[in-house]
Design goal:
The complex is a heterodimer of chains A (278) and B (838). Chain A is built from six helices and 16 strands. Chain A is an alpha+beta fold and 278 residues long. Chain A folds into two domains: 187 residues, Alpha-Beta Plaits; 81 residues, Immunoglobulins (Immunoglobulin-like), CATH 2.60.40.10. With 838 residues, chain B is of the alpha/beta class. Helix content of chain B is 24%, strand content 17%. Classes of the chains: A alpha+beta (278), B alpha/beta (838).
Amino acid sequence: MSTFSILVDVKKCTGCYNCFLSCRDEYCGNDYPGYSAAQPIEGQSWMHIQEVERGEYPKPKIDYVPRPCMHCADAPCMGAVEPGVVYRRKDGVVIIDPEKAKGKKEIVDACPYRVIFWNEALQVPQKCTLCAHRLDEGGQLPRCVEACPTGALVFGDLDDPTSEIASLAKKLVVEQLHPEYGTKPRVSYVGLPKRFIAGEVVFADRSDECAQGVEVTLEGGGVKLSTTTDVYGDFEFDGLAKNVDYRLLVAAPGYEEARCQVLTLRDVVLGEIVLTPK
Amino acid sequence: MSEKVFTSCTNAGPVSVYVKDGKVVRIRPLVAEDKDFKPWTIEAGGKKYSPPKKFALAPYVHADRRRIYSEDRIQYPMKRVDFDPKGERNPQNRGKSPYVRITWDEALDIVAGEIKRIKDGYGGSAITGLTSSHHNWGIVGYKMGPFARFMNLLEYTPVLDNPDSWEGWHWGATHTYGFYWRLGMPEQYDLLQDALQNAEMIVLWSNDPDSTRGTYTGQESSLWRQWLKEKGVEMVFIDPFHNYTAAAMEGKWIAPRIGTDTCVAMAIAYVWITEGLYDKEYVKNRTIGFEEFKPYILGEVDGKPKTPEWAEQESGVKARVIRALARQWAAKRTILSGGARGGEGGACRQAYGTEWARMMVLLQGMQGLGKPGRSIWGTTMGAPSDFETWFPAYADLQGRIATTKIAKYLPVNPTKQRLWRLTLPDAILDPPVSWYGEGFCGQSLEQQFKHFTYPMEGHAEIRMLYRYGGSFMGTMSDTSKWVRMYQSPKLEFVVNQDIWFNSETRMADVILPACTAFERDDVGEWGSCGGYTCHASSGCNFRIVVRQQKCIEPLWESKSDYEIFTLIADRLGIKEQFTDGKTDLEWIKAFFDNSDLPGRISWEEFNSKGYHIINIPDNYTPTPSLRWFAEGRPCDTPDTNNPKRKTEKAAELGTYSGKIEFACESLKAHFPDDEERPVVPRYIPSWEGHHSEIFKKYPLQLLSPHPRFTFHCHYDKHADWLNDIPVHRIKKDGYPWWPARINPLDAERRGIRNGDIVCLYNDRGRVLCIAVVTGRVRPGVIHSYASSAKYDPLIPGRADSPDKGGCVNILTSSRMVSQNAPGMTPNSCLIEIEKWEG
């Protein structure tokens, strides 16, 4: 037994779309009998890139979250139809049988991740197969992983402790996309975008110099974090929770403290926080 | 039928091409045998860095299958319906009238007949021809091969190319540190190792290597930047747009107002001078003219000290930020990354871009350019590489069928007349035109001072244009004038030979369908340009020479360029002179035999296996760029074209003094009184910037950099999958629109929302785009990439029609960098933008 999967390191993804395009190249117009019918020339993205822009000028942050099929352990698509139409291979790959699944649009609707597409011409649901036909050849990677220039996509067997994916999964802080869906997705992520709060500290009496080394603390949601401003007077707290009331304190010797309350309904760029001398 | 696998190469990487039933079904990064790779290793900070055994292609290559079978392919020879070579030619209808299909014989007869008529009547100089770069890879089929050889036989008037991606470095930086043999960009040898071992900070100034890559080396270097990021090397991005590398690397983003980068650079120099934060020993021994530069920076020349506060006024960058950056730069071993190849970048493609590029060199000159971690490095070249083994590149004299010694016969073009690409429309519409500079001035500094006038005495005015491969509506400047040129009766005949319908294809009288490199045989080394960019394949983790095999038969009625020129030559009675008695396959074999590959691999094996990887030798010894200069030693890098190398002056740079010149001796000698490219660099406010009168009417600055998901105009429009990448195009109502990025403040003032169709306009034209409202552009700037291949005028044939394809270069100015520096200036462009109500 094995569990093949992909680990996505969002921090390494440059948003080049090589995975998206190579996936199309493999599947558009090409049949892989037993695994997938030909994907239409356009309209489907078995490897979809979600571009996430957070913050605002002058502190935007960009992340890319590649989304293939999650090959869930509790795959709702499997439960949506009679057994055998959608099945799990011994290596963990979830396959929609392109013949048996004809006409079964409910498979598309069953997926909370929305990574199953309806082929109107063929009347068949289809999705990422982790390039099962290539895995069968042995020693081959899914096309998306093969095309990734930075190692942001890591493919391997989660059950093999010597594999790169298994050791990374152990070493890094690994998350799932929407674990609350309860489907136990096998595809996992590192560095999924969270909320951040950023700002720039300025001394009112020395605005020609950046306020470096100023202590900034953030408290809220049961955590207390602190940092110091960098050479530009900038500070940043990333990895924060959504919709939490945080209290921010900026303190520098000889200056009045600055405090503010920040609700992370979105990412917050505070702009200049001006400290006045005591 | 089972699949067959062929090898090929693109302008961004080697590929394996899978063919079934005569049709390409799949294109993968070239699948090479594991044993063929011998990866290099760089040790730094207790870690070993080594590339994976694979080839990282540029994104668009994965869509090449769609490009081969594109609906935009020209399928048959065609003739404009109202063009009659023996009667009415109706040039005013170019761009407007439809076409009819004709046979190859008819087409070739017309083209050959027109060539003969014009050459006999007026001489070869009445014919000109125009190409663009790299719609295909492979040296035998490249424009410098068949096109050049054929046109030389006609004794045509060549069009000199402007160095469109690195104008300021070419026309400016060369006078500061030489490297004219690299067209103004510095050598890049072993700078990856230097960066990993020594750099503490990298300033990417007007540089987005994740978008522009190493020009031709795919995404090989994105892993290098990943390593540097993980190592904790600080990164600073100076760019009015929060570019894609900045997005991936994070770091500090500084967004100056367009046209004011020179101010920021000068203020950095001011901080270093007034705080003593520069390498005084280096400045004393390795540079000249500092005593002329320093008083200007301190304000002793013009009464304006170039303080950070002064720079803040102009650039909008806070003085304190400039001060902090300057101090950090001096305190840390800092690499300056001034464009993907060291030089390049949007800041050099604008009014007085020479001054910015010169300042880049001078800043690093003040910090000991060439010392460990103090390089000018684009982050896209300079991997360990075998620099000994030679395989011809397309720009090498020995890599072109037009100039190689393997040819028995080499046609020599006696015509001295020249045209300048940027002023070609003016030359046709309103001659005479004149300019300084012999195109790519890679032979000497003085080449830049050579004066040209068109028409040249004793030569004819142009009557025929042979357009080949590509389109300029989306890449040159003020491009509606190209439409006016095409409609001029002075152009009696226009032929367009291309693979796809491009922006200018429908301006021709006769259209000839060429095939892609996948439909013919060729050979080429990945990333290797040769010529003035020596050893460019060091941007690849592995050197690989690819036997580009014919994968499928030419589609529809297309033919290889080589065959088309052969057929025309045959009709002109010069077939033997053109082909040299060789087929294209025989040229490939001859290039192979003349290279260093025989002995390493047999022709038979190379031809059938399809590739050969050239690994680094076991005794590889790194020679970091300019370390020799910093240490006062003779040049030890393999920079073959450096004319002083291996001479008694080998420790010198390519300037007159052999040193870095704060006051340029070459400018002093030739243009001592030029106020626009003065002997000592100056900040000169843009002629189309925030001080201009027209700024009141058009207060937004257009920034149009090189694009991320197409190579110039070569993949856009022809590879439809790219239309599903929202960075590239965004579909709305079924149409793939070109994005224009706008700051929320500017959008709100104009009632523009994300996803609205907007009109970008000024007195030069109107272009429709789709609005992307984003905090990634500074207020006052509209970011929209150059290089749309889709010219889609609402009123075809009208030069003043709005274009809905996204050719934003319709809006840019014709004015050159400065009076004696004839470079293009797309980033000096003021516009207004409004919601398009249709």
